[in-house]
Design goal:
Layout (H helix, E strand, L loop, with lengths): L1 H40 L5 E2 L2 E2 L9 H10 L14 H9 L9 H11 L22 H5 L8 E6 L4 E12 L2 E9 L2 E8 L5 E3 L4
Antiparallel strand pairs: 1-2, 3-4, 3-7, 4-5, 5-6
Helix pairs in contact: 2-4, 3-4
């Protein structure tokens, strides 16, 4: 009887241990699912260390995800007009800079990173237009520019590209953009093709 008694409690202990682990795993899975759901519903400027939390968007269209990231930022503006403010500083931090620097290229880089692309990631706007990524004049004339491509504005006084933004769409001889550090904010505007110095493609 003593042997049967100990055997019974031995089996009971194993069963309790197994059920306890299964319950813990279920709770852990529930907590993780809740955390993921919370991440999806939080502010788009979620960060993890020095990197933006990558791709909380559903769907497979990368170009659309880049533009969706940018559109959610429309209305962000500098705090004092000196390249500052919590959002602006987050864009700059993504490219390794603090407040006070021009941030148009940082904004573009942040949008790509938010959509799950590690490049471009550079605060220097000319660096976003390497010759290998630029559209040719013939390609531009054929209407090859696509959503989430980059456009460049050239400064004659600086003798270099000094502004960059995202192409939202092309409409005839115009493009619709989403761009940062324009009038000290993120906005969408129409620009004539004739004013664009270059376009680049980082996605194909």
């Amino acid at each position: 009887m003593a042997t049967m008694h100990y055997l019974f409690f031995g089996i009971l202990s194993v069963a309790v241990l197994f059920l306890g682990r299964a319950g813990t795993a279920a709770v852990r899975e529930q907590k993780l699912s809740g955390s993921y759901a919370a991440l999806q519903s939080t502010d788009p400027l979620v960060e993890c260390g020095d990197a933006v939390a990558v791709n909380c968007y559903l769907g497979s269209d990368l170009r659309k995800r880049v533009i969706d990231s940018a559109l959610q930022e429309i209305g962000v503006q500098e705090a004092t007009g000196n390249n500052d403010g919590s959002r602006v500083e987050a864009y700059l931090r993504y490219v390794g800079l603090g407040k006070g620097y021009a941030w148009c290229a940082a904004f573009v880089s942040w949008c790509y990173g938010r959509a799950g692309r590690p490049l471009p990631r550079n605060a220097w706007s000319p660096a976003l237009f390497p010759m290998a990524s630029r559209y040719t004049t013939a390609e531009i004339a054929k209407g090859s520019i696509r959503q989430a491509d980059l456009f460049a504005i050239y400064s004659s006084s600086l003798r270099r590209i000094n502004h960059v933004g995202l192409v939202r769409q092309q409409k005839g001889n115009w493009i619709v953009t989403v761009e940062g550090n324009s009038a000290n904010r993120v906005l969408s505007k129409r620009r004539p093709l004739a004013t664009i110095y270059a376009f680049s493609n980082w996605l194909d």
